[in-house]
Specification:
This protein has 616 residues and is α/β, with parallel strands linked by helices. The protein folds into two domains: 3-119 and 185-320 and 591-610, HUPs (Rossmann fold, 3-Layer(aba) Sandwich), CATH 3.40.50.620; 350-526, Orthogonal Bundle (Isoleucyl-tRNA Synthetase, Domain 1). It is built from 20 helices and 17 strands. The strands form five sheets. It has a five-stranded parallel beta sheet, sandwiched between helices. Strands 5-4-9-10 form a four-stranded antiparallel beta sheet, with no helix packed on it. The longest helix has 31 residues, at 371-401. The chain starts with a strand and ends in a 7-residue tail after the last helix. The protein binds one RNA strand of 77 nucleotides through helix 2, helix 6, strand 10, helix 7 and helix 9.
RNA sequence: GGCGAGGUAGCUCAGCCGGUUAGAGCGCAGCACUCAUAAUGCUGAGGUCGGGAGUUCGAGUCUCCCCCUCGCUACCA
């Protein structure tokens, strides 16, 4: 049986995690990891903070602290909030630790010794004030085409032209505002062009089962023809290039960060980590659409060139972006719902967030989160359909049988929910509900899988409405026992089926059913036969149910209103702050960041412009 | 600008190797029920499937053109 390595994009330690990240990456990845564990697969779920790169140094400079201070702060905030939400990473590591430094340097050295890299000398802009080379993005000047004065060294946002820094008129450093000078430098490039024909075209071509957005993006790059890409940068903050005479150079973040998946595995399993990366192992990357190219082209290219049996990704189910109240999520404009704040302000509503974000997951296109929709989904689906079904069943059971599963004599057809002559995968409930959920999960269709799960709750409500045990109890004791008993079994299986989506609510419900949550029973449910399709599980006659309680609480209007008000207030505040710093030129400062940045987290470059350079 | 992904009911989204009356949830209207957090169940209204042209016996579904949104565009991550 192959091992399964599931990775979730490393969040960039430049800000907290928001609902866009969760909906696109961490919740689907968590559901996937939980399902595999329940099925008894050998799975590792790997993540950690991505702590290098220019934007972190800029934030540190802006705040007058060290880069390490910045990443320490966000690593803690991000890690704690993931843990509290119940994202079940086997490890949440970070790229500033020693294991990672050592392993990524070794990886680079290995490729270097194989003669993989091209050594290329080039002239780059250098900021003498700030004492560092400038990434194209951090050179600001006038666009040669449209004369926009706020154009970046790589692109003019106004007219959309792709630029190179030397084309900019009046170039200035976004760090210090000073005029940069050209300096010669040397960097090591990954020869993507050389392996396009021999490897990448065919490899990508073999991935016809991948999502259209992922394939499309890859083909777009391949069609253009790949070019060598620099794997080192002239920067202080990062993993030093492990070569003589490479002082002041670090590994490119996109070289080193994906290796973070491997180093985190090594940190977790020092003795057998290699089996997860070079053995009989399947690799799945959960990411947002903005880093498809890095996970589908560059990292696979690195692994391929490394050879040594390294596995290539089996699947990269990248998602699109989540919008918030009709607008793109934006860190610089503070237009986001931050996980750490949600957890504080909406206590005991973790599964509600998981549920809502799964039901609107941007699996095929950008999708939309609104607080009103959140309220509706919680109130009408979790409270109204699921919680209510659980509550009606449990209350009726207490009322009529004091919570003890009644003896059901001969099953009478008119009151039966399903044909008891069918078993295993042919069992009607398995065939119509459990198998489809499993199949959708196997297919990475988490939204549909969760919806199908909810249909079982709808079925339960319908079954009660059809047979009306509260009426039946007055005329037909045997039929009442049968109907309520079957309703309990539906609820029990529903509780098991809920687990990957809403682990805490599942646990609560199992407790109310007096079923605890034995591992054996879960395994039976999730992997009872070779297809990996679950088995219908039943509570025995005489079994005592636990105490009934409400599974979910309604979300009141005032809670929603205050969240919306907060969002608008903080956005207005941040707009005012930006406006005062950079005048009218505010919208130009958006730079998307982060390996895990699935929804346009941004930093304001021009605001940094106003900060005194630290020349010491 | 180039490339890629989208544009389907009031809202949020399915459907798209072309094939009978285009689906779901929410919202809305009516009915039923009263075990349940006024929850649930049933029925119904509601769409010229972004616009235009074409291929076809037949087009949300294929082709071409146009409009709009989002992403990528190689030194942001």
């Amino acid at each position: 049986m192959p091992k399964i390595t599931i990775t979730a994009a490393l969040p960039y330690a430049n800000g907290p995690v928001h609902i866009g990240h969760l909906a696109g990456v961490y919740i689907p990845a968590d559901i996937c990891a939980r399902v595999q564990r329940l099925r008894g697969e050998e799975v590792l779920f790997i993540c950690g903070s991505d702590e290098h790169g220019v934007p972190i140094t800029l934030r540190a400079r802006k705040e007058g602290v060290t880069s390490q201070d910045v990443v320490d702060r966000y690593h803690k905030i991000i890690g704690d909030s993931f843990k509290e939400l119940g994202i079940s990473f086997d490890i949440y590591s970070r790229t500033s630790n020693a294991t990672h430094k050592e392993l990524s340097q070794a990886f680079f050295k290995n490729l270097y010794d194989k003669g993989v890299f091209k050594e290329i000398r080039s002239e780059q802009y250098f900021d003498e004030h700030a004492g560092q080379f400038l990434a194209d993005r951090y050179i600001v000047g006038t666009c040669p085409y449209c004369k926009n004065e706020g154009a970046y060294g790589d692109q003019c946002e106004k007219c959309g032209s792709t630029l190179s820094p030397t084309e900019l008129l009046n170039p200035k450093s976004a760090l210090s505002g000073s005029v940069p000078v050209m300096r010669e430098t040397i960097n090591w490039y990954l020869p993507l062009d050389e392996i396009q024909e021999s490897f990448l075209n065919e490899w990508i071509g073999s991935k016809s089962h991948w999502k259209s957005n992922v394939i499309g993006q890859c083909k777009s790059w391949l069609n253009e023809g790949l070019r060598p890409r620099a794997m080192t940068r002239d920067l202080e903050w990062g993993v030093p290039v492990p070569l003589e005479g490479a002082d002041g150079k670090v590994l490119y973040v996109w070289f080193e960060a994906p290796i973070g998946y491997i180093s985190a595995t090594k940190e977790l399993r020092p003795d057998d980590w290699e089996q997860w990366w070079t053995g009989d192992s399947r690799l799945v990357h959960f990411i947002g659409k903005d880093n498809i190219v890095f996970h589908c082209i560059i990292f696979p290219a690195m692994l391929h060139l490394r050879g040594d049996g390294y596995v290539l990704p089996n699947h990269v189910p990248a998602n699109e972006f989540l919008n918030l109240e009709g607008q793109k999520i934006s860190t610089s404009r503070n237009w986001a719902v931050w996980l750490n704040e949600y957890l504080e302000e909406m206590p005991n509503r973790k599964d509600e967030l998981r549920y809502v974000l799964t039901s609107i997951a941007p699996e095929t296109k950008d999708s939309e989160f609104t607080w009103k929709d959140y309220q509706t989904r919680v109130n009408s689906e979790l409270v109204g359909i699921l919680g209510n079904f659980a509550n009606r069943v449990l209350v009726l059971m207490q009322k009529y049988y004091e919570g003890v599963m009644p003896v059901v004599g001969a099953v009478r057809e008119p009151f039966a929910l399903f044909d008891r002559n069918l078993a295993g995968v042919s069992h009607p409930m398995v065939r119509d509900y459990i198998s489809p959920v499993v199949e959708l999960l196997n297919n990475y269709q988490f939204r549909d899988a969760q919806f199908k799960m909810m249909e079982l709750a709808r079925l339960g409500n319908k079954y009660l409405a059809e047979h009306e045990p509260w009426k039946l109890v007055k005329t037909d004791a045997a039929a009442t026992a049968q109907v309520l008993s079957e309703a309990v079994q539906v609820l029990y299986n529903l509780a098991l089926l809920m687990e990957p989506f809403m682990p805490e609510a599942s646990e609560r419900l199992l407790l109310q059913l007096g079923a605890g949550a034995s591992v054996a029973e879960r395994k039976l449910f999730w992997s009872a036969n070779p297809q990996g399709v679950g088995q219908w599980c039943e509570l025995a006659e005489g079994h005592s149910l636990g105490a009934a309680g409400l599974l979910f609480q309604k979300v009141e209007d005032d809670v929603i209103e205050s969240q919306i008000a907060k969002l608008q207030a903080t956005a207005a505040e941040s707009a005012a702050a930006l406006g005062s710093t950079v005048g009218t030129n505010d919208a130009a400062g958006e730079v998307a960041l982060g390996i895990g940045d699935v929804a346009s987290a941004t930093v304001d470059v021009l605001a940094i412009n106003a900060i005194k350079p630290d020349v010491s």
